[in-house]
Amino acid sequence: MEYRDAKSKFIQTWGALGSQWGINKTMAQIHALLMVAPEAISMEEIMEELQISRGNASMNLRALMDWGIVYKELKPGERREFFTAEKDLDELAVKISRERSRREIKPALKVLKEVSSIEGGTSSEEKHFIDQTTKLYDFVLKADNVLEKITEYKDNWLTQLLMKFMK
Amino acid sequence: MEYRDAKSKFIQTWGALGSQWGINKTMAQIHALLMVAPEAISMEEIMEELQISRGNASMNLRALMDWGIVYKELKPGERREFFTAEKDLDELAVKISRERSRREIKPALKVLKEVSSIEGGTSSEEKHFIDQTTKLYDFVLKADNVLEKITEYKDNWLTQLLMKFMK
DNA sequence: AATATCTTTCATTTTTTTTTGAAAGTTTAG
DNA sequence: CTAAACTTTCAAAAAAAAATGAAAGATATT
């Protein structure tokens, strides 16, 4: 395979994968493009390479920066802004899991706590509801804690984790 | 909060969460409904409770069954079909991660291997591409292995995992 | 073998999400 | 201060995804 084709295939695949994980296609594609770019690139270049509009590029770059996985870089003497992606994969994974925990898991936990705390009704239907949502709360809380612990292992957490299971 | 409201809030929240994880809203809602139902329920009831059409219910139930997290149950003497969800959370999580690995991670790995194996070009751009996609391949492969190992711990894998980190 | 009960399929419609592009906003330079 | 060089915003358009519902398929019952 040619380099051009490989790059394009990588960007397309990453984009498609993004959709399956609740991230929009363009956002994932921009991220992919920046991941394999040896140095920071401008918005103009991103638009050109992915064939997208200025507004689209601007909004998705902003979203990536909100996730903390893409950085703005200013080159001296240059008016335009350049962008780079977090390239360290351990760091990338840590940032993504922290952010998802903050945005999705924590709010979900709040709701689970709420709904599992209703006054215990009499019907078996209500009893089962309380029981099941309580279990769900405990489970998600535990999972969230495990994730937090794992990502505390600053460097090479994944390798270390794998070791623990190889023994 | 009233039981009715709690149940509705739970279903809504689960549905919204589903969207963020690349699962469609109705599918997640049906799953939520079945999770808290003390016993198997019919398609008619699902349609009624969630206010959705027959076709929608049918397709999403089928999808849930393809994921292996909802089962069809036949009641003796009954013509209609009834449905239940996997209620054991450890089992549920194991099924979901195995399925996502099969459907998404494995195919992604294949592409990563492909694109990282192009003939090493001369330009630094190509070198960086090969280097980065190779790292990504290694990382994802390792993550997939960890996930596989973790889910092998049949029972209480989450608790056991947490222990390992508490020490 | 005709009817009744229930489920699936899929072309069409509806809803939701994403993208566009031009106007407004911002920052630097002269 | 004004112009030039960029970036952001957001209403409208386009595209994608999901839902509907009626017809076609099953399967059991008489």
Automatic annotation (TrEMBL), chains A, B:
Domain HTH marR-type span(s) in chain numbering: 27-80
Does the keyword field hold Transcription regulation?
Answer: yes
The top of its lineage is: Bacteria, Pseudomonadati, Bacteroidota, Flavobacteriia, Flavobacteriales
The record's similarity note reads: Belongs to the GbsR family.
One Gene Ontology MF term: DNA binding
InterPro entries according to UniProt: ArsR-like_HTH, HTH-GbsR_regulator, HTH_MarR-typ, MJ1563, WH-like_DNA-bd_sf, WH_DNA-bd_sf
Q: Which UniProt keywords apply?
A: DNA-binding, Transcription, Transcription regulation
The species this protein belongs to is: Flavobacterium stagni
Name of the featured protein: HTH-type transcriptional regulator
